[in-house]
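Preliminary data (for renewal application), adenosine-5'-triphosphate complex.
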Amino acid sequence: MRLSQYFLPTLKETPAEAQIVSHRLMLRAGLVRQMSAGIYAWLPLGYRVLKNIERIVREEQDASGAQEVLMPTIQSADLWRESGRYDAYGPEMLRIIDRHKREMLYGPTNEEVITVIFRDAVRSYRDLPRNLYHIQWKFRDEVRPRFGVMRGREFLMKDNYSFDLDKAGAIRSYNKMFVAYLRTFARMGLKAIPMRADTGPIGGDLSHEFIILADTGESAVFCDKDLIDKDILGRKIDFSADLQPTVNEWTSLYAATDEMHDQARFEKEVVADRRVAARGIEVGHIFYFGTKYSKPLNAVVAGPNGENIAVEMGSYGVGVSRLMGAIIEASHDANGIIWPEAVTPFKVGLINLKPDDSAVSGACQTLYDKLGAAGVDTLYDDRDLRPGTKFADMDLIGLPWQVIIGPKGVAAGKLEVKNRKTGQREEMAPEAILARFAA
Ligand code: ATP
Ligand code: MG
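Predicted structure:
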């Protein structure tokens, strides 16, 4: 993509309304624009990142055996009356009346809808277990939307729902999601720590929140430092095997959000120099809640002896749009964003230092074409601007690699490659650059 033709409205000034660094950088780097309180439009660069985050979430869900569906954003109020949650949900729910005076709502979550889909289709214990997910916009009329996409009103969530015959099966499903979540966040370059959590209005008796440590986080968190150092990606995970031992390895170490924190236990279980007391951002939340929805909504299957059994359920959420803010909170410096390679909108930023010099522009064009042919996503800054502006913009938008091409480099046959994260610079021949990035 040529920057001269790209819709990238960056801002020089720091927007006054943005209180935290990720929000400021998302606005400054032209990723999103606020349309109303807590409601955002995604601009081309931001939308590319959102789709990358979504892709990783999807790949890990698929690998775990969950199946993708797409449920509507608009739901019927009657469904929520059946589950008993319509009144309980309160003013966070956006309630809508259609032209026939039917009460509808913009879904804040999907337990009711999925339970009914399941109920109407599955009759026998032989059809269990099932795990269905979707990635869909939610609306919650948050009292205080803030911090940009971190606490929006409209936001993108991956949510899924597991159906099992008994509690042991439901725990197996829960464990799969637990491990899938560890992998999902690790692949985005994040250290997400599972913390015992309150089940809140969803109900049930087993729940973990996955939390990224960041000073601007809304939750106070306490954990064993060993959890931060643990690595899931180095392991081979077989989702058809019993994952309880893996889960135990993580859950046996102390980690809790403030609601669940027990200071005495913390001090007993964790030696002083491994105690982490910090703030964090919730990026995922998993629940096992048994028959809380299957009973009122009558989601039963025939068991082996013909008896009716209410299915055991769990639900699992990832804040897909919130993750973009969380990633930036975790990965930035004074000059801007530093995208992890896995989610970056483009891998390489190519900077043409002298667009009016035909040798320089020729060298840029040749490398740009070759990178494109090798499938390397490249953003080519071919604009007629001074180098300082180009450097600042490229640092701001945070692509992991910059290739800087000017008259001296072209004459010497060596181009400059800069690593955005470390700031390290190398001189490399064009062929070597191509080989490096195409690999
Ligand atoms: P929170 O405690 O932050 O309000 P929640 O417990 O209400 O979150 P869940 O219902 O578990 O959230 O939703 C699953 C995930 O969706 C959360 O872990 C979070 O990452 C994301 N999420 C929830 N509310 C919002 C919001 N208002 N804006 C952006 N993402 C959100
Ligand atoms: Mg929560």
